[in-house]
TrEMBL record:
Cited InterPro entries: KH_dom-like_a/b, OsmC/Ohr_fam, OsmC/Ohrsf
Domain of life: Bacteria
Residues of the signal peptide: none
The name this protein goes by in its record: OsmC family protein
């Protein structure tokens, strides 16, 4: 069993304005979140970023013996209503566009890309595996009263 201090991941969100939040991680990183009224990322866009980012970081770790010439990732999907009338994302697609130099090491890494993408999606990317798994989410309300 893993020690919770090595498995726990967390962020903290603070409301900064109407429909606007600031998300912070424990390392000092900050992202602005909103409902799409300005350039802030929406929560759904952050989900897409998480899918693409996890894919990219994991594929890169598996092909790191050569520096890619190009490494672009696009993620898209459709926000629709499900059978219960609730919102859900469907048809999520992560597109990986990566190329290496035509030298020996670049070709070896290029040859590894299809397997790296498959392993990333099926085994290593925590985000895509969690999205596909039936993962319950517990929402807790803290009741406080201002005096």
């Amino acid at each position: 069993m893993s020690d919770e201090s090595t498995t726990l991941r967390s962020v903290h969100l603070v409301r900064t304005g109407q429909m606007e939040y600031r998300a912070e991680n424990g390392r000092g990183g900050v992202i602005s979140i909103g409902e799409g009224q300005n350039t802030d990322f929406t929560p759904v866009e952050l989900l897409l970023v998480a899918l693409g980012g996890c894919t990219g970081v994991t594929v890169e770790a598996l092909t790191k013996r050569a520096e890619p010439k190009r490494f672009d990732i696009s993620v898209e999907g459709h926000k629709v209503k499900d059978a219960s009338g609730g919102n859900i994302m469907e048809d999520l697609v992560v597109t990986v566009d990566i190329s290496f130099d035509h030298d020996e090491m670049g070709q070896k890494m290029a040859d590894r890309v299809p397997d790296a993408i498959e392993r990333t999606h099926k085994q290593l990317c925590t985000v895509s595996r969690t999205v596909e798994a039936p993962t319950p989410i517990r929402v807790v309300q803290v009741r406080t009263s201002e005096t």
